[in-house]
Amino acid sequence: MTHRPGPGRRIWCPLIAALAVAGCTAVKVQSHDPRQMAQRRHADAFGGGGASSATRESLRILGLPEAACWLEPRPCLKSLQASQGLDDERRLSALAELWLGEAMAHDPPRPGERNSTLDAYLESARASYAYLFFTRRSLGERALEDRQDQVRDFFNGATERVAILLFEEAKRRGTLDEAHAGLTVLTDTWAIHRGLIDVPLPAGRPLLGLVAARRLGFTGIRNVYRRDGFGAELVACAAERPAGVAEDNLAAREIGYVPVTAVLRFPGSSLEEVMTAREATVEAYGSALHDSISLYGTEVRLASDFTAPYALWLNRSRFRRQVGRVLTRSTEELVEPRVFLMQPYNPDRLTVVLIHGLASSPDAWVNLANELTGDEEIRRNYQVWEVFYRSGMSLAFNARAIRAALEQTLDRFDPGRAARASHRMVLVGHSLGGVIARLLVLDVGDSLWRMLLGHAPSAEERQRLAAAAPYLDLVPMAEVGRAVFLASPHHGTARARGWLGRLASGFIRTPPSMIAKSKEIADLLEPLAPAHAATVRAAPDAIEVTDDRDAYLAATARRPIAAWVDYHSIIACARPSPSLRDCTDGLVPYASAHLDGAASELTVPSRHRVQETPAAILELRRILHLHLRGEHEQPHPGR
Q1: Do the beta carbons of residue 567 and residue 561 sit within 8 Å?
Q2: CA distance 132 to 293
Q3: Quick one: which of 332, 346, 363, 433 has the most CB atoms within 10 Å?
Q4: What are residue 484's DSSP bridge partners?
Q5: Is 370 exposed, middle or buried (0-12, 13-18, 19+ CB in 10 A)?
Q6: Residues paired with residue 569 on neighbouring β-strands, in sequence order
Q7: CB–CB of 198/290 below 8 Å?
């Protein structure tokens, strides 16, 4: 006999089964690649994929639709603002990100949208500001939390766009030259005041543009040095030259690309006051002058990018094109060297002068100069000057011209030589630039006169050859306290007279003014020293005078460096050799680069461009730290 369930049992069995299924958990746990999980955890509005996981979580707590809130945030922003279901940190950080997403969705603003876009960025910055400074926990208590870093980035990104949009509007209206402090810009709902602007732009060169450093990518540079912190990382770009001053009349030029941190401040001393005020003050701080600012009793480190200004300058200067033009054309371009100041002149910082080699330019120092900037102690205590000169001209002409350019630079900024910047300067020269640097610290006495005349000059001979005297009477620059020579052919090289040297020399052209000066000196010299007169008349180029048999080079190589100048050699050796004496970098042999009496000498495995190697850069940094401490400093006469 078959048992049949009754009607009640037929009803309850499916119901019990359904309840049993419903009671089972639906949660599944999967293991993911840790890199994917890290990307998800750190993703936010700047990643382009929507709101961060923390903001989505806050929206879910309030029952708000995540996707809809990101696409159309204003209704959700009202709910977030009024909600009591979130603590202040969650609420403010979500407000900051959604307002940022709203602003970015309308940036660049279309005609008529500028005010609303600016307002959205200000709302984001204010919510971030309130989160950082007016919630229960302090900055230090949240120091290890990812969310605080994200909110700081929201503030920095919103401030960056506020600063740039305000600058563009002021430029459009022609109000850039108005008084810095007190100027107020009104949007639909906000009043934005211009507060402290402490940016050391070159004198007479107004602000031409603001560039967001955070948006720049770099190639051709090894490292990017920046400082994490509070505020927008910007580059202030000054106009190219002082108003009313012809470009060719300036030997010294501050490059006019200055790292700046922009900050927004909001009035109020409580969370409620900050979140109800519709006012903000924008400030700008030069990174060379300000490391931090005080906010509500806390010293807050300012964000800054130190590589971006230098990279922008090199990118826009196009030095390589200029080098080819001045080497191979008989023009007057760059007959007078230029001294570029990498930072606005600072009288209280020591000076490092970089002098490039043959057929080169400031591009040769790209990584070395940037690495010096990346060293905080060096950045705080030194300023870097780079010399750009017509390297194809002879040693005598270039040494005189570069000395004159440096003296003009010092005269411009410190005519009385009272500043720290004018004392214990450090010369750094690569290749031919190192030979020139050595000539700047030599006391040759009358050795060059003896080379020409075969004897010490009489008063009459000095008078007759007065036009040649500036190239023969070399005295050490009193302002220099140290020199560093990298792969420098102090004693010349046989490669200069080889087929490659002769070929390269055939392409070099001498400016007409230098040809005329050579002829003038040769004519005066003819009755006294006809053989040397013929050499001078030929106006030898830089390759010819680095021949290891050149009389001028030989005469100067035998002379000592000034007693108060410490000097160092960094020598390149392309391949291992049984003896240092056999070492060469492919162009300059060890024997030519070596100098007796050097405070230090380092041999680096490298070809001729040794200044690009990490080992050479680290050695230069070591030397600059040594110089800063005043170690091994020779006494300066009269001081």
Answers
A1: yes
A2: 15
A3: 433
A4: 428, 568
A5: buried
A6: 485, 601
A7: yes
Torsion of CA 45, 50, 52, 57, to 10 degrees: 140
DSSP state string for 437-493: HHHTTB--TTHHHHHHHSSPPPHHHHHHTTTTHHHH-----TTEEEEEEES--TT-B
Provide the mean pLDDT of the chain. Answer: 88
Tens of pLDDT, residue by residue over 292-304, are 999 998 999 999 9
Pick out the chain residues at pLDDT < 50. 1-2, 19, 37, 179-181, 248, 638-639
Query: Virtual CA dihedral for 172, 173, 175, 176, nearest 10 degrees?
Result: 0
Reading the block at residue 135, the tokens are: 């919630």
Which of 329, 307, 419 has the alpha carbon at shortest distance from 373? 307
pLDDT of 497 reads 65
d(CA 34, CA 47): 18
Q: What is the DSSP string of 225-265?
A: -EE--BSEEEEEEE-SS-TT--GGG-SEEE--EEEEEEEEE
pLDDT per residue over 197-225, tens digit each? 999 999 888 899 999 999 999 999 999 99
Cis peptide before 14 (omega within 30 of 0): no
Q: Give the C-alpha separation, 299 to 286, whole Å.
A: 17
The per-residue b/e assignment along 440-459, b for 16 or more CB within 10 angstroms, e otherwise, is bbbebeebbbebbbeeebee
Coil vs helix vs strand at 370 = helix
Tell me the pLDDT tens digit for each residue of 327-363: 777 787 888 999 999 998 999 999 999 999 988 899 9
The distance between the two most distant Cα atoms of the chain, rounded to a whole number of Å, is 147
Contact criterion met (CB below 8 Å) for 395 and 552: yes
**pLDDT value at position 528?**
87
Location of structure tokens 């806050």: 58
CA separation for the pair 357, 431 (Å, rounded):
5
What per-residue confidence (pLDDT) applies to 155?
98
Q: Is 628 exposed, middle or buried (0-12, 13-18, 19+ CB in 10 A)?
A: middle
pTM higher than 0.70 for the full model? yes
Return the number of other C-beta atoms located less than 10 Å from residue 237's C-beta.
21
Token code pair at residue 309 = 């200004």
Residue pair 561/476 in contact by the 8 Å Cβ criterion: yes
Q: Are the CB atoms for 603 and 583 separated by under 8 Å?
A: yes
Closest CA relative to residue 395, chosen from 432, 428, 430: 432
What tokens appear for 196 in the block? 């402290």
